[in-house]
Description:
Layout: E1 2-7, H1 15-19, E2 27-31, E3 34-43, E4 48-56, H2 83-92, H3 94-97, H4 105-108, E5 112-122, H5 125-132, E6 138-145, E7 154-166, H6 168-183, H7 193-201, H8 212-219, H9 224-236, H10 255-269, E8 274-278, H11 284-291, E9 297-302, H12 305-315, H13 322-325, E10 328-332, E11 347-351, H14 362-373, E12 377-383, H15 408-422, E13 424-431, E14 442-449
Parallel strand pairs: 8-9, 8-11, 9-10, 11-12
Antiparallel strand pairs: 1-4, 1-5, 2-3, 3-4, 5-7, 6-7, 12-14, 13-14
Amino acid sequence: xxxxxxxxxxxxxxxxxxxxxxxxxxxxxxxxxxxxxxxxxxxxxxxxxxxxxxxxxxxxxxxxxxxxxxxxxxxxxxxxxxxxxxxxxxxxxxxxxxxxxxxxxxxxxxxxxxxxxxxxxxxxxxxxxxxxxxxxxxxxxxxxxxxxxxxxxxxxxxxxxxxxxxxxxxxxxxxxxxxxxxxxxxxxxxxxxxxxxxxxxxxxxxxxxxxxxxxxxxxxxxxxxxxxxxxxxxxxxxxxxxxxxxxxxxxxxxxxxxxxxxxxxxxxxxxxxxxxxxxxxxxxxxxxxxxxxxxxxxxxxxxxxxxxxxxxxxxxxxxxxxxxxxxxxxxxxxxxxxxxxxxxxxxxxxxxxxxxxxxxxxxxxxxxxxxxxxxxxxxxxxxxxxxxxxxxxxxxxxxxxxxxxxxxxxxxxxxxxxxxxxxxxxxxxxxxxxxxxxxxxxxxxxxxxxxxxxxxxx
Length: 458
């Protein structure tokens, strides 16, 4: 798939400084699904064109299987512009996307004449025009005809040409967001951090776009809660932030990232190398665990087979080396029932899990994890309900699936009771920006086993 960027701003070869790619060379970049190349088919003072070519290796491509039985093998992924091309653009032109240029800072801040060409793009000419015209582009979207042998007429693809006078950074961010929006199918699992990516790339233009609802929904893979969060932030004109529970909160760093870091720090504190991620969901914590070589054995457990499939895709298990693959196991199990496979580990993590369990069933989870599996340490995180006053417009719990949310006193009482019943000590700490009155948004309990405990059989 191909994308070209052309300027006639003199000297046009300054485009190379903005893209941080020398016009006299061919640049190559390894991508998860192939190889990206940047080259300059023309480079004069009057006119300069940079071409981004993504050569997709079908054997490295996990195609979507969402339209017909053989779509895994017969599809348009290697040819039509999509999130694959947007990801390549983000990697190859990272500095230009930020609007930074060490050599030409004034030019990076200046609107210059630009021509963009995407020869094969999925989407109707009408939708392409609706998306790009409000951003200051003159749009030419020419439908690509089908061959007469298959009936003729227009295909679902267009040859897109854009012309306008814009900052290069703005142009690239338009493409980064709108290419996957038009394709309407990302090649990777959409996690909550995509909200932050959308708001960062849409800064200055998305909030006022007449199609912002459609853009948010498609960019975020029709995850309603994610789109709602993104649109709320846009309407409130708040700074970019991200929360795995789908709610915004004023803070300097994403709470989901702070929470994962706090869990990893707790695991390091107890010296764990063999770790259980209980209620692992689509694999947010597993991704961090596999990157840390101190963890030699990792088990992700969840009751949902769909979540485990998502985790496998997110981890790219099918692309891992045998050595890496041997470090991680995914198992389906219910945490409220006995499972011998969970016994004998250094530590277990229940990250944002207990609040999804009905309160009458919580003792069964306690008995299963603390009484039967008996890991050397247990890390539990859960929302601090006192902090909810900082979420504007929130009238209930942070997530529709939460069965309860505890105050700091309630969580401490539960944790101390569990520790006493099952032979652990416990320390409690906050995670996230601390408020003097309400505490931190997340509360974390670190349990350490102190004695040999008789296994619970009831």
